[in-house]
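Input C-alpha cells:
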C-alpha cells in the first residue's frame, strides 16, 4: 500500500467532445467537484468543452485549483477555458503531455477518444519503464474502458508484457469518481527499478 501522504496534484486526461453521452459529462463534473473538495490541484488539457469543460466547471464550483495546459494552436482557435486558476500555453502536443504529467502525484483517465487514449497509454508506458512511478487510475464509466482493459490483459497473457504490468499492479480501474482517491491511496508502490523487469522474461 502507498503511504498516507496527501494527494496534492493530479493529471487528468479526458475528452473535449460535446456529443458524448451525458453520463460521461456528469462523471467528469463530479470528479472535478471531488478533487476540489479534497484540496487536490487538477492539471488537465485546458479545454472548455466536453468532459474537459465539465471537469473544470466542477472544480471551479467548489473553489478548486485547476491548471490548464494547451498547445498554442488550440488557444488560437479559442478552445481554452477562460476561468481557470492558471492556463499555460505551450508549443505543441508533446510539450503539453510533459507539462501535465510533471510533478503529478497520480494520473486519472476519464473516457475519451484517440487523444485521451494516447495520453493514457504513454503514461502506462512510462510507468512500465520506471520513468513515471505514481498511480494510474481509469474511471470506467459505463464500462467504457472494458475493451482496452481486455487488450492490455491480453498483452500480458500473450507475454508482450509481464504479469507485473497487468490490472491492479501498474494501473487501477474504478467505476465512479467517488472511488478515485481511495484507489490512488491504496495503489501498490511502483519500484524505481521497474525498467529492470520491463523486458519480457522468457
Amino acid at each position: 500500500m502507498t503511504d498516507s501522504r496527501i494527494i496534492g496534484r493530479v493529471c487528468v486526461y479526458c475528452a473535449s467532445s460535446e456529443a458524448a453521452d451525458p453520463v460521461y459529462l456528469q462523471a467528469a463534473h463530479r470528479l472535478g467537484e471531488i478533487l476540489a473538495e479534497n484540496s487536490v490541484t487538477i492539471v488537465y488539457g485546458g479545454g472548455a468543452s466536453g468532459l474537459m469543460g465539465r471537469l473544470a466547471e466542477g472544480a471551479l464550483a467548489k473553489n478548486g485549483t485547476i491548471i490548464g495546459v494547451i498547445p498554442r494552436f488550440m488557444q488560437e482557435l479559442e478552445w481554452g477555458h477562460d476561468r481557470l486558476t492558471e492556463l499555460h500555453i505551450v508549443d505543441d502536443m508533446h510539450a503539453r503531455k510533459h507539462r501535465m504529467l510533471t510533478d503529478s502525484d497520480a494520473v486519472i483517465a476519464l473516457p475519451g477518444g484517440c487523444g485521451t487514449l494516447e495520453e493514457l497509454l504513454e503514461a502506462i508506458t512510462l510507468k512500465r519503464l520506471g520513468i513515471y512511478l505514481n498511480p494510474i487510475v481509469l474511471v470506467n464509466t459505463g464500462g467504457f474502458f472494458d475493451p482496452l482493459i481486455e487488450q492490455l490483459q491480453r498483452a500480458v497473457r500473450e507475454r508482450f508484457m509481464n504479469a507485473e504490468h497487468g490490472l491492479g499492479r501498474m494501473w487501477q480501474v474504478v467505476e465512479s469518481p467517488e472511488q478515485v482517491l481511495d484507489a490512488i491511496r491504496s495503489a501498490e508502490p511502483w519500484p524505481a527499478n521497474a525498467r529492470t523487469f520491463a523486458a519480457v522474461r522468457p
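Strands lie at 9-13, 41-44, 66-71, 86-90, 106-109, 136-139, 172-174. The chain is about 40% helix and 15% strand.
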